[in-house]
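FAQ
Q: What does a multi-component entry look like?
A: The components come first, one per line:
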Amino acid sequence: MVCLAMSWVKTLGAILVAAQVVSSQGLTDAQKAHASKTISVGYILFPGFEPLDVFGPLELIFSTSFYYNMTLATISHEVGPITARPPPHRMDSAGPPMDLSYMINPQVIATHTFATAPKLDLLLVPGGTGNLALAQANDTSVEDFIVSRFNETEYILSVCTGAITLARSGILDGRRATSNKGAWVETNGVGNNVTWVPSARWVENDKVWTSSGVAAGMDMMYAFLKMYYGEEHINTLMNAVEYAPHTDASWDPFSVVHNVSFQ
Amino acid sequence: MVCLAMSWVKTLGAILVAAQVVSSQGLTDAQKAHASKTISVGYILFPGFEPLDVFGPLELIFSTSFYYNMTLATISHEVGPITARPPPHRMDSAGPPMDLSYMINPQVIATHTFATAPKLDLLLVPGGTGNLALAQANDTSVEDFIVSRFNETEYILSVCTGAITLARSGILDGRRATSNKGAWVETNGVGNNVTWVPSARWVENDKVWTSSGVAAGMDMMYAFLKMYYGEEHINTLMNAVEYAPHTDASWDPFSVVHNVSFQ
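Then the predicted structure of the entire assembly, as tokens:
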């Protein structure tokens, strides 16, 4: 939990009271159900994932796991360290090869492969330059995994250009979506009958949510967790994380900055 | 770099122009010097580090390493996976043992130990429940490392309760500092002649900067990187990260939320 100490005494006391109070006050049946079981979360990783696409939402999920039973599987081609450093790729099909091996390489552990990942309730898909490299290598492992888990998952959420991966998997067909505004051209021609929303911090469909770039994942995840569990503990942890979320899904100054207000 | 694609063509072009323009327009000698060499960054990790304390600032540093030469060492007691899940600890010296082994455990790779870490220009110290466990085990490895690297580093920055670690190391003596507002009681009696600032998003001293909790690290890091390199590329990457930073170091609604406006 977020670097608390003595305030935990107060918090634990509050939790004990709240756990009884909240359960009887205004929670939906779905929220009660979520709180009563262990939620299995899967987070996709690949070489060149965007760090904050993962750890923005994951900080909130980590903090939530203090209050509610959750498990986390970090899922990639192989178990072990996965680097955020972008692998070799081309900027576009006609472009020169990009060698970003000079960038720093923070590494995160993948605990499962696409083959060994457990049954999932929630699946999270980050963006990052790496998904460009995968696409150029005709590697559809992530898309295939998304398709294979679509029915069993309760929700699938993407951050940033993870939306492009979702579109390539087909699960955005007939749905609305948004993506990173600095890379908005990537949405062209991807998926079938996808309504790309150029001005949106995030977009909610029935079971598929997509956010704009990088930091937008935290705003989407706050809205999601409140919907999923009810707001009491989620608001408490946001105050501990000292993050003031943007709560209007249509707030998107970056669509203006990157000139994609009009598609 | 933040999940861009074709916009990189534009960006690269802009960089080539900017690199020549910026270097001759308004950069300080220090900023020019930083841009002209390889900056060695060290990030401390320990079991129970707070994920966003690390990956908030690290996303910005990672993105910055697209523009400027940097190296990253992630430093802990041992190399290999370091978990964010809090280890066993007590909430306070008289309190019951806390077993948070039910929380999810994202793991990040430490590339160096305190003994093997390279010479550092910048040293970053996160918070998290883990530093409470270290203190209770009388483990001063992190404090000792900070002391040993104080002279060689150009800057030392802490996020969240990392400020408590800095205070215990002695390097905040005679300096001003802030820390996570949800755990403000932890600042009591730590360090000598430390001016703890209860309402501050972050606090800057000569070479020691400290931020408030968790997400505040991103706001501090934005201010720091602009100071360190000049604003042009840093502003570009912030737009790509789609994070709207809080730029007033005195902005601190969480000091009100957590009732520490008055010490």
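Q: Is there any commentary attached?
A: Sometimes. For this entry: The mean pLDDT of chain B is 91.
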